[in-house]
Specification:
The structure holds 2 protein chains of 2 kinds.
Chain A: E1 19-24, H1 28-37, E2 46-51, H2 59-68, E3 72-77, H3 88-105, E4 113-117, H4 123-157
Parallel strand pairs in A: 1-2, 1-3, 3-4
Helix pairs in contact in A: 1-4, 2-3
Chain B: E1 36-41, H1 53-60, E2 66-72, H2 78-91, E3 95-100, H3 103-116, E4 124-128, H4 130-134, H5 141-160, E5 168-171, E6 175-179, H6 183-194, E7 198-203, E8 217-218, E9 223-224, H7 225-237, E10 242-246, E11 248-256, E12 259-267, E13 273-280, E14 282-285, E15 289-291, E16 306-308, H8 309-317, E17 324-325, E18 328-329, E19 332-339, H9 353-368, E20 373-378, H10 388-396, E21 400-403, E22 411-415, E23 418-425, E24 431-436, E25 439-444, E26 446-448, H11 452-458, E27 485-487, H12 497-515, E28 519-522, E29 527-529, H13 539-543, E30 549-554, E31 557-562, E32 582-584, H14 589-600
Parallel strand pairs in B: 1-2, 1-3, 3-4, 6-7, 6-14, 7-10, 14-27, 16-25, 19-20, 19-25, 20-21
Antiparallel strand pairs in B: 5-28, 8-9, 11-12, 12-13, 15-26, 17-18, 22-23, 23-24, 29-32, 30-31
Helix pairs in contact in B: 1-5, 2-3, 5-14, 6-7, 6-12, 9-10
Classes of the chains: A alpha/beta, B alpha/beta.
Chain lengths: ~170, ~600
């Protein structure tokens, strides 16, 4: 069955969050393949784009993905195993920082972006990350819906709290 | 299992951003009119059991640029490839998308299809709808189908923006490294030397030979394993192009395919050690296996008179006269099969060789003393191929075979009368037998060798069973996802010595196919600079550890230029450019954003 999010306020079940994963051809993508080979389950809302190296991800792609409808972006990084760049983990951290700043500037919660090192055999680890991230995004969805509703009510009452519903 | 079929239900269907409100601006890609063929593979039922492939075809057939959209039972089969070739030629396709297994398996295959049909191989892109869709969403066929549609649309979007490219060539070292000095590694080393490559052999132990080097007579010619190893070592001595390091381990690996720099830590006398660096084009990993060691109490392990098959083989090999164990004569013994395999000990696999090895050992025991009573307590006998002769001969020599139920393995115990085995005889009315014996031999199989250090250094992929993973068990059986790193012998799963040698020689062929040309073709997916956008700030130059980026004076302006031969294609320079002037071929800004957009377009037609 398709994994459904917890019923939103009002009782309507919603679809599983769409998560964009940036993997790497030689390290994390084989790990994600192995999760499939082992028939480990996670939400079909997870979609993967494989890159040569984590350090080649543009922060603007992450913002674009969120704008287009992905609720979260997960960077399945090479960690310290990158065959290209010795300082790949450091570069990836910088990309995440920049992307999170970009998300905030555009009114999105920075928690919509996560990163973890996924090795070529980290199948269970990957599935666990996906399930955890899906749950977190569902919770974020509910939290933001509640904040938006509160802001709407406050607005109707003429005293909108500063910052309420500012992120999406 | 037949393919699930779905009725389109707008109430439950995931949202399609393309059908969103007027505020949802789509990126404006400059797209030329393309002629793309899309093939959605059933992979037998591996995909189509969970993904409605017809629904995928229907959903993408009217995508911009798509002129052919089909599903195919096996895209990689000769018939499947032929169909694609004919379509490419008949429809003048300039782009190809195959939605099938992981690209790691068949990119080369389908690039070959493109090339044979006159289509540039880099106009081909693969959508992974098996490992990352059908196999991981076996619990959700509907979700899997929606996802497959999005994945294929994403790859079509990428293909619309692909450009024809030519592969890059790098010189390859005419040297190979073999890790492991067992029968597979030694035979591979000889083969590599005979095709004209210099070879380094690294063996962790002080002696070469591995398991076979410890064996006595082996089936079928009863030649001793240690003699086989001695003859291989003699052949190695005749070849000056082979350098052997014993008592040595791999300490580091750097470089890339065709040009690996490998550090070998060679232990000297006492605690001293020296690290030697060799430059090689390929690496053959033939590190073998470990024998399963049952924990104390498992099948009587730890009781006096209970030993494993490797220990018993060593006992038999070292015996000329009457068989004795710990000073006592052995008049009866029981072999308990499938210990540490087929579910026991957490190992799901069957090691295959243990049935044959036990039958062979029992024949040798009968040869020492035909009066010794031998009971074989088995789940199934898997003496495949000519090993069946051993099974027949073993029974003829007096061995008694007793089949026990899968869910009721024999119980080994001891009392004042000595050792005994209690077993249910499935083929004789399921009667419970109590067999007093002098010795119990636990027929243990192969388990993955503990090699965490090596795995970490070589980044070797490991399968669920813990053995090294090949790319494809049938089509690329000794290659790994790490280019130029090959696996051989029992390091990739239980094998007989003959099978181990065969896989070692397959690794020789694979190494030779790449290294003997002197050059290897690499993907031309390197970074490029748009000089019109570049304002030369130098950030990209600083971001490239390979020195591939230089400053160039162009029409009175300073701009960056990237050397194709030195660029490794990592893309590390891409996000540091403040002007977005750098793109990685195959992963351009336009292609990635098109993929992101397509991945969300999962609604069915």
């Amino acid at each position: 069955m398709t994994v459904l999010a917890a019923p939103a306020e009002g009782g309507t079940a919603t679809r599983a969050p769409r998560i964009l994963v940036f993997s790497t051809n030689n390290i994390s993508d084989p790990g994600i393949d192995l999760a499939g080979s082992n028939h480990l389950h996670y939400s079909p809302g997870v979609r993967v784009i494989a890159m040569p190296c984590t350090s080649g991800i543009r922060p603007s792609w992450i913002l674009h993905a969120i704008r287009q409808g992905f609720e979260g972006v997960f960077i399945a990084s090479d960690g310290d195993e990158c065959a290209y760049l010795a300082d790949c983990a450091k570069r990836a951290s910088r990309i995440v920082s920049e992307a999170q700043a970009l998300l905030r500037q555009n009114g999105y919660d920075a928690n919509r972006l996560r990163m973890a090192a996924i090795c070529s055999v980290c199948a269970e680890n990957f599935a666990k990350h996906m399930n955890g991230f899906s749950d977190a995004l569902v919770a974020l969805r509910a939290k933001e819906a509640a904040a938006a509703a509160a802001a709407s009510q406050a607005s109707a009452g003429g005293d909108a709290p500063a910052g309420a519903g500012a992120t999406k | 299992m037949s393919a699930p079929k779905f009725e389109w239900n707008p109430e439950t269907a995931p949202a399609n951003p393309r059908q969103g409100g007027p505020d949802e601006a789509q990126p404006a890609h400059e797209e030329k009119a393309r002629r793309i063929g899309v093939y959605v593979c059933h992979c037998g039922g591996n995909i189509s059991d969970y993904v409605d492939v017809q629904a995928v075809v229907d959903a993408v057939k009217d995508e911009p640029g798509v002129v052919v959209a089909k599903h195919t039972v096996f895209a990689c089969s000769d018939a499947g490839q032929q169909e694609m070739q004919e379509d490419i030629e008949a429809n003048h396709l300039d782009g190809l998308v195959v939605a099938s297994c992981s690209p790691k398996l068949h990119v080369v295959t389908f690039r070959g299809v493109a090339k044979r049909s006159g289509l540039n191989p880099y106009e081909y892109n693969q959508a992974n709808i098996r490992e990352q869709v059908s196999w991981t969403h076996t619990n959700d066929p509907e979700g899997a189908t929606h996802k497959a549609i999005g994945v294929v649309r994403g790859v079509i979007g990428r293909t619309r923006l692909s450009d024809p490219l030519e592969p890059l060539e790098v010189k390859t070292q005419q040297r190979a490294l073999v890790i492991g000095g067992g029968i597979s590694g030694l035979r591979a080393a000889i083969g590599l030397a005979d095709v004209g490559l210099a070879v380094y052999v690294v063996e962790r132990e002080r002696e070469l030979g591995g398991w076979v080097g410890k064996f006595g007579p082996m089936f079928p010619h009863e030649r001793e394993g240690r003699d086989l190893i001695a003859s291989l070592v003699q052949e190695i001595r005749k070849r000056p192009s082979i350098t052997v390091f014993t008592g040595a381990e791999i300490a580091s690996k750097a470089g890339s395919f065709g040009n690996y720099l490998v550090g070998i830590r060679v232990s000297g006398s006492g605690d001293s050690a020296e690290t030697i660096t060799v430059d090689v084009g390929s690496i053959v990993v033939a590190t073998g296996f470990d024998a399963y060691q049952p924990p104390e109490g498992s099948f009587g392990m730890g009781l006096p008179g209970v030993i494993t098959l490797p220990d018993f083989k060593a006992l038999v090999d070292g015996t000329d006269g009457p068989l004795r164990f710990q000073g006592k004569p052995v008049r009866s013994l029981a072999y308990v099969y499938c210990v540490g395999g087929r579910g026991d000990g957490g190992n799901a696999h069957c090691s295959r060789f243990c049935c044959s090895a036990t039958a062979h050992t029992s024949i040798r025991v009968a040869g020492l003393d035909p009066k010794i009573r031998q009971y074989h307590l088995y789940r199934d006998i898997r003496t495949y191929g000519s090993f069946e002769l051993l099974y027949t001969e073993s029974r003829k020599s007096g061995s008694v075979y007793v089949k026990y139920p899968d869910d009721a393995p024999p119980v080994v115990s001891t009392d004042r009368d000595g050792l005994k085995v209690t077993v249910r005889d499935l083929l004789s009315g399921d009667e419970e037998l109590e067999i007093p014996v002098d010795l119990v031999v636990l027929v243990t199989g192969a388990v993955p060798r503990k090699n965490d250090g090596l795995v970490g250094i070589l980044k070797l992929p490991i399968g669920r069973d813990g053995f090294f993973n090949e790319i494809h068990p049938k089509l690329r059986p000794v290659e790994t996802v790490v280019d130029g790193v090959l696996i051989a012998g029992a390091s990739q799963g239980p094998k007989s010595s003959a099978e181990s040698v065969a896989s070692g020689l397959a690794a020789v062929t694979q190494s030779a196919a790449v290294l003997k040309k002197g050059v290897a073709e690499l993907d031309p997916l390197v970074a490029t600079v748009d000089p019109d956008k570049c304002t030369w700030c130098g950030k990209c130059e600083n971001a490239c550890p390979y020195g591939a980026i230089e400053k160039l004076s162009l029409n009175g302006r300073e701009v960056a230029t990237i050397g194709e031969a030195t660029c490794k294609g990592c893309g590390g320079c891409v996000p540091v450019c403040p002007e977005n002037a750098i793109d990685l071929r195959g992963y351009t800004d336009g292609q990635i954003t098109a993929m992101i957009d397509g991945l969300l377009e999962e609604a069915m037609a």
